[in-house]
Specification:
heterodimer, A: alpha/beta, Rossmann fold, six-stranded parallel β-sheet, about 40% helix, B: 2 domains, seven-stranded mixed β-sheet, five-stranded mixed β-sheet, globular
């Protein structure tokens, strides 16, 4: 067992990953039959959001992406209000106005799941700037994919955070694919995105994004560095999404590659580790899974019972008073 | 009362607000010790320091995104994009992010930020430094758009824009920066969404904004001597626009000319004309006329620029066509 990581922390991270996994698997089933629009699931990437957010306080900020359910759950989002939002119901976080793509909870620092790739990066830098100006010890973390690293906002947002020594951390969720195009076809350093950090004068790390303990430890150092005024860090986390870019898309990826990564499932690996280190037994695993699935089922129930928004809601909040 | 230039009035509005609220900061390229590309920020940096008057790299998208992140976490940023032509670099952050954050997230945040930018030609700065793009922002729900024409208006409106809990695109004009006008010494604000009658008249309503108001006033003065009484209406705020003042003026005169420096096609003049045609049709004694830049990019030499951009003769001609 790792001396730095307590038994309680291991179990907390395990449960955190389960929450995301079971929420997303359930969403995958109900979405097809009961929801409108599109949904992008985080299945397979749970270790990243969970490991990073275990280092964050309630008043720290994160910006998220179209694949944002995982970040929201990891930051402490309420599954009931999340599911209601996915169903487009009035008890959802955004009054049902945005659904899966724009899940947000500003009261816990989740500054919105963004549908524009890379847009959240300078916004996170701005939240970090705000913390610095107001003299607090808050930190802002930006989550984004490999695809975002070729966008202008990545360059501008990271450069300014670096140049101004802002309390920010930049997490690349490198699942190696755009929608259906392998990232290494359009970028020469897909295997070493951490090398981009040198271009901004900040530290960069390439890590196993499916090892929640490694994610936790690396992001812990980066978050502390940021909180202590030492500026931002770039962390490239290798991972893989189990489903397609959006639910219902055709999977064009090589079958052997998919199988290789399924074998490296972060939750499967964590369960194996917990069993091996005797932190938990088979019954315990079943217990955790049962408990979390019950939470998810209650969330679906809550969503189904929530009313649809009235037409007037379409015209609320265009402007503030 | 004190005489201030347009740029000084902007600077003093920012200074007064920044003294009042420590969460307000100015950010942009060259706003710090250099004093601003149009010399607007001046000595603000020496009074407020590095974090409240922040120099950035050339990163318009990043500047607006950073300002948004700060705006939704307790600050009130003023982002300066000196030439509005460069604002094209930041359109995703303005249109998809700033304008939509409050609505998309169900009212969970406010976005109290101001984007200050200068439109305008007549300075021979060529195609990429002379445009008037305010119509782009008028077309995006969630943004407010303000375009003052005098030092008095700009100071009062900038203070209100900074205090507004919504994102405001604050349209300045390069040619107006040195123009002087009288401004009260005491603290005052002008509410957004209220038009100003710059000159009363009874024969024709002439609607304009920003720098072109001054050409309109020159034309109105000249025509007064010919016995034509022109009422010059300055909406001052384009979104939300004061329809009532405009329609009341049309009711009085029965004739309308709308003049703006932006291109004719799809300019805000088209929006105003449509409103009048819809809600003031019964008042009209003549078709609505528009004066605007021709639909061509704005060329550099005066011999060509002056053919594309609206001149006083164009305004006078349009007025006479309604009579």
């Amino acid at each position: 067992m790792d001396e730095d990581i307590s038994r309680d922390l291991m179990l907390s991270m395990y449960e955190g990953m389960l929450k995301i996994r079971l929420f997303e698997q359930t969403q995958s089933k109900v979405y097809v039959v009961e929801q409108e629009g599109f949904t992008h699931l985080y299945i397979g990437e749970e270790a990243i959001a969970t490991g990073v957010c275990h280092n964050l306080n309630k008043d720290d900020y994160i910006t998220s992406t179209h694949r944002g359910h995982g970040h929201m759950i990891a930051k402490g989002g309420d599954m009931k209000r999340m599911m209601a939002e996915l169903y487009g119901r009035v008890d959802g976080y955004c009054k049902g106005k945005s659904g899966s793509l724009h899940i947000a909870d500003f009261s816990i620092g989740v500054l919105g799941a963004n549908g524009i790739v890379s847009a959240g990066i300078p916004i996170a830098s701005g939240a970090a700037y705000s913390a610095k100006l107001r003299g607090t010890k808050q930190v802002a973390v930006a989550f984004f994919g490999d695809g975002a690293t070729t966008q202008g906002c990545f360059h501008e947002g990271v450069n300014m955070a670096a140049a101004f020594d802002l309390p920010a951390v930049f997490i690349i969720e490198n699942n190696m694919y755009l929608v259906g195009t392998r990232f290494d076809r359009v970028c020469k350093v897909c295997d070493n995105l951490a090398s981009k950090a040198a271009g901004y004068g900040i530290p960069g790390f390439n890590i196993d994004g499916n090892d929640v303990v490694e994610v936790y430890k690396t992001s812990k150092e980066a978050i502390e560095r940021a909180r202590n005024g030492k500026g931002p860090t770039l962390i490239n986390c290798f991972t893989y999404r189990h489903h397609t870019h959006f639910e219902g898309d055709l999977d064009v990826r090589d079958k052997q590659e998919v199988a290789y990564w399924m074998d490296r499932d972060p939750i499967k690996r964590m369960e194996e580790r917990l069993l091996k280190e005797k932190i938990i037994n088979e019954a315990g695993v079943k217990n955790y899974r049962g408990k979390v699935q019950k939470m998810v089922d209650e969330a679906v129930d809550f969503a189904r019972k929530s009313p649809k928004p009235a037409p007037e809601v379409a015209f609320e909040d265009v402007y503030a008073e | 009362m004190i005489e201030l230039s347009f740029r000084e009035a902007i600077r003093e509005a920012m200074r007064e607000e920044m003294r009042r609220d420590s969460n307000i900061f100015l950010i942009g390229t060259d706003v710090g010790p250099y004093g601003g590309e149009f010399r607007v920020s001046g000595n603000l940096h020496s009074e407020f320091g590095e974090w409240r008057v922040k120099d950035t790299p050339i990163s318009e998208q990043g500047i607006i995104g950073l300002s948004l992140g700060a705006a939704v976490t307790g600050c009130r940023p003023i982002a300066e994009i000196p030439f509005n032509d460069f604002i094209a670099m930041a359109m995703d952050q303005i249109v998809n992010q700033v304008a939509k954050f409050r609505y998309t997230f169900g009212g969970q945040c406010i976005v109290p930020m101001v984007i200050r930018t200068a439109i305008g030609g007549y300075i021979r700065a060529a195609e990429q430094h002379s445009q008037c793009l305010e119509a782009w922002f008028c077309h995006v729900p969630g943004l407010k758009v303000v375009a003052p024409s005098t030092p008095y208006d700009v100071k009062g409106l900038l203070k209100s824009s900074i205090r507004d809990n919504n994102p405001v695109i604050f349209i300045e004009h390069k040619f107006m920066y040195p123009m002087k006008g009288m401004v009260p010494e005491e603290d005052y604000t002008i509410p957004l969404g209220v038009a100003d009658i710059k000159k009363e008249g009874k024969d024709v309503t002439l609607i304009s904004y920003s720098y072109l108001i001054h050409k309109c006033l020159n034309v109105a003065k000249k025509l007064e001597e010919e016995g034509i009484s022109v009422e010059v209406v300055d909406p001052r705020t384009l979104v939300p626009m004061d329809k009532n003042t405009i329609l009341n003026s049309v009711k009085k005169t029965g004739r309308v000319v709308i003049a703006h420096e932006a291109h004719l096609r799809g300019g805000i003049g088209a929006e105003i004309a449509a409103i009048i045609a819809d809600e003031g049709f019964e008042y009209l004694d003549a078709p609505i006329k528009r004066v605007a830049a021709k639909d061509a990019p704005i060329p550099f030499p005066s011999v060509l620029e002056d053919v594309v951009l609206p001149q006083e003769t164009d305004i006078e001609k349009a007025i006479k066509e309604t009579l």
